[in-house]
Amino acid sequence: MLDSSVVVNGNSTITKKWTSLLTDSTYEWYVAVKDKSNTVKTSKMNFFTRKPKLELGADRSSCDPISIVSNINGVNYLWSTGDTTKNIIANKTKVYSLTVSLKNTNCSIKDSLKLTMIPKPVNKLGPDTLVCVNTLLLSSKDDDMNYLWSTGETTKSILVQNTGDYVLKLTDPVTTCWSYDTIKVLAGTLPTVDLGPDFTRCGGSHKLYISDNNLKCTWSDGSTAKYFTISKSGIYTVKVTDKNSCNNADTIVAVIKAIPSMPAISGKNDNCENAPAPQL
Questions:
Q1: pLDDT tens, 180-227?
Q2: Given the DSSP bridges, would you call strands 129-131 and 178-187 parallel, antiparallel or unpaired?
Q3: Which among 249, 207, 201, 198 has a CA at the least distance from the CA of 225?
Q4: Is 118:175 a contact under the CB 8 Å cutoff?
Q5: What radius of gyration, in Å, describes the C-alpha atoms of the chain?
Q6: Each residue's pLDDT tens digit, 239-264
Q7: Where are the beta strands (DSSP E) in 80-177?
Q8: DSSP-H helix ranges across the chain
Q9: pTM of the predicted model as reported, rounded to 2 decimal places
Q10: Is 75 buried (19+), middle (13-18) or exposed (0-12) by CB count in 10 A?
Q11: Is-contact 54 77, C-beta < 8 A?
């Protein structure tokens, strides 16, 4: 640091002072003037003893966006992206360059960095889902990855039976890039439906009923009433669905036999017409 003072006309004192600003090659020049009334006025400017070195660092590869930062302060910045800030967020495979202009000089310097973005594993567990049976198989679609489920399991597939959010972290063992995906599972139960045993009957009709009013019914003919009338032989099915969209079905086989008709009795019995009444 260098200081010097000069008295001007016996009335004012000019003080010069060097102070480090940016790097060991960059200083700020102060001029302070104090008049006889002790009023101080100052001005300053940047002064470079030599051009500072701009370093953005080595070329990089990354799975995620990175921040590229200038190592020089107090200058004008112009990135190849058009940004004018000290740092930028880079998220594409390309060369990023920065030109800095030293203030109050005609000096400018430039450096560049090549970023290579590495693709992350594609991690898709599918849409949120409902499980109405005892278990549901959740499985990754990616092979040859390292798997880590929120349950702690490290297999490609897991069986779940409880309501909850299930998270899978996929890691590429070669690039070490990773990605997350989450699936929400709602666990329900199968609704109960029982049409009874298969049956055989002679003539007439037979009605089937679904007694639970909370279930939606769809019969094999497309009807949706709570009951179904059988009047001929066949295989009949009903599908019931509860409020959670869990569904179940049952089938019944019905055999409806025709009622035999009574034989007609006609004509005369000649052997009996003139016969004497039997003796008691």
A1: 999 999 888 889 999 999 999 988 889 999 989 899 999 999 999 999
A2: parallel
A3: 207
A4: yes
A5: 46
A6: 999 988 888 999 999 999 988 877 76
A7: 87-90, 94-101, 108-117, 129-131, 136-139, 146-149, 157-160, 164-171
A8: 270-273
A9: 0.56
A10: buried
A11: no
